[in-house]
Each structure stands twice: as C-alpha cells, then as structure tokens.
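Repro:
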Amino acid sequence: MINPHYQQIWKTVQLIPVGKVACYGQIADLAGLPGRARMVGKALGKVPKGGWQGQVVPWFRVINSQGKISFPVGSEYFAKQKQNLQDEQVVVLGSKIKLKYFQWQPDLAEILFSLEF
C-alpha cells in the first residue's frame, strides 16, 4: 500500500509548472505536511517507475532551501536533475538555481482549486 502522505506530495509536485522549482519545505507545506521536508525527499525517491495515476511526477523540480540541487555534484542523479532543469530553461550555475527568478509562487486560487488536502 502506498503511503497516503506520499500521494499528497506527488500530487503537489505535479503542480509545479515547467520552468519553475520548489523547495522541499515548500512542497511539504503546500501538501499539508508542514515541517516534513525530509518526507518530501523520501516520497520523491519512492515514485512508481511509470509515474503516479498515469502522470509523471517531476521530481527534478524540487531543490533544497538554499536553491541547490541536493545530490552530490558529479553523481548520476545530479547530472540528470541538472539536465532536466536546463531542458526546461531553468538556469543552473554549478549546483545553484536563483530562487528569485525560478521559484514557483502559486497564487491562492491555484492552491485552493488544485489541491484537495
């Protein structure tokens, strides 16, 4: 059985628009799980291979609160996340993304009508 909190996280991550990023803590808050940033990381590591509910969960759009990719520089997953972000026109300098320009800032209507928690 899939953890229901993970499902909340996946659904929230699916709302991040192309070309934007969100922080682990931000996703936790929006998913109704304040203070559970680490759970977000765990949930993203457990996304089913084919996605969830027939849709891709864009895990690569989630970064840490300092605006950095959390995987070790030079690792396979670091390279994959960086490339996926760059493919969406997100500028990645080293391992850093400027949150001022690329952080997802959903408006209240988007949250109220898209999330069911």
